[in-house]
């Protein structure tokens, strides 16, 4: 297997406001979101990052997508450092998160062209790529509708398409089915499998066991910013369901911290 992502000793802390301290029920002024994290992902696989809310999944993906820098450690994406070579990393990846909102004044057509320009996609390739993706996700009838007037599912589809304008080899998705109805969620998960069959590498975070079991080749279980288990789905679920494995390790980790 060809290693395409190598995460080495990543750590990230955040300062907590008084309000956040009350929400977290702590007097600590800092929270460790990612704690000395290391793992690898390989070409042509779907790697699932599984954990409860607050486990550090989104922070890890933000670091990998160069949105934030780690306090320490690094990650190499196709041999390129997210810390030292962030611009080159961004040219290699597609990143989708429900927390990144589309500008509501613009249309899917305009946004696709705008992001294609950012990635310097030639016009003839852009047109072909747009047609392919708009057809696949049923965006054509809404291509000139302002984002503000699109349904939640259609907005997610447009976000997905825009993240893939440059046909990246490494795709990072944070909770790709969050807030979607079951039909749209199936379209998205089926598409992830298609991307894998094309040889793409996909890193996906979620807290939904069924999605991981359906689409992932390997899984990392993240709790309190630490990687508790990282192995193939076959090995992780050889004796128990993924849900049972998760709650077993979660109970053990929580018990150790009390």
Overview of the molecule:
- The protein is α/β, with parallel strands linked by helices and about 260 residues long.
- The protein has a single domain (about 5-255), classed as Rossmann fold (3-Layer(aba) Sandwich), CATH 3.40.50.300.
- It has ten helices and ten strands.
- α7 (about 180-195) links the parallel β7 (about 170-175) and β8 (about 200-205).
- The longest helix has 16 residues, at about 180-195.
- The model has no long low-confidence stretch (mean pLDDT about 90).
Q: Report the CATH architecture.
A: 3-Layer(aba) Sandwich
- Strands side by side in the biggest sheet: 6-7-8-3-9-10
Strand-pairing-aware structural class: alpha/beta
Report the end-to-end length measured between terminal Cα atoms. Answer: 40 Å
CATH class: Alpha Beta
Low-confidence stretches: none
Largest sheet: 6 strands, mixed
CATH superfamily: P-loop containing nucleotide triphosphate hydrolases
Query: How many strand units?
Result: 10
Shape: globular
Mean pLDDT equals: 89
Strand content: 25-35%
Summarize the helix and strand pattern as letters.
EHEEHEEHEHHHEHEHEEHH
Rg computed from alpha carbons, rounded to a whole number of angstroms: 19 Å
CATH topology: Rossmann fold
Query: Total number of helical segments?
Result: 10
Number of separate structural domains: 1
Strand and helix map with partners:
Layout: E1 3-15, H1 18-24, E2 30-42, E3 46-50, H2 57-64, E4 72-77, E5 80-81, H3 86-92, E6 93-97, H4 108-118, H5 123-137, H6 152-163, E7 170-174, H7 182-197, E8 201-206, H8 209-215, E9 218-223, E10 226-232, H9 233-236, H10 242-257
């Amino acid at each position: 297997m060809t290693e395409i992502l190598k995460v080495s000793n990543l750590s990230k802390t955040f300062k907590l406001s008084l309000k956040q301290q009350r929400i977290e029920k702590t007097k600590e002024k800092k929270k460790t979101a990612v704690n000395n994290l290391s793992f690898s992902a390989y070409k042509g696989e779907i790697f699932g990052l599984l954990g409860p809310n607050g486990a550090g999944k989104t922070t890890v993906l933000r670091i990998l997508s160069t949105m934030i820098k780690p306090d320490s450690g690094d990650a190499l994406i196709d041999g390129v450092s997210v810390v030292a070579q962030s611009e080159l990393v961004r040219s290699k990846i597609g990143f989708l998160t429900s927390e990144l909102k589309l500008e509501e004044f613009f249309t899917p057509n305009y946004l696709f062209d705008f992001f294609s320009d950012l990635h310097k996609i030639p016009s003839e390739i852009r047109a072909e790529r747009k047609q392919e993706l708009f057809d696949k996700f049923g965006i054509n009838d809404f291509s000139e509708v302002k984002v503000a007037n699109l349904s939640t599912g259609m907005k997610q589809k447009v976000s997905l398409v825009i993240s893939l304008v440059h046909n990246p080899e490494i795709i990072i998705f944070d909770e790709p089915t969050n807030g979607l109805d079951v039909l749209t969620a199936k379209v998205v998960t089926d598409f992830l499998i298609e991307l894998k069959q094309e040889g793409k590498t996909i890193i996906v975070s979620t807290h939904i066991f069924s999605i991981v079991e359906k689409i992932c080749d390997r899984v990392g279980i993240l709790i309190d910013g630490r990687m508790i288990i990282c192995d193939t789905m076959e090995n992780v679920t050889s004796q128990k369901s993924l849900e049972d494995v998760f709650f077993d390790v979660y109970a053990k980790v929580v018990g150790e911290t009390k």
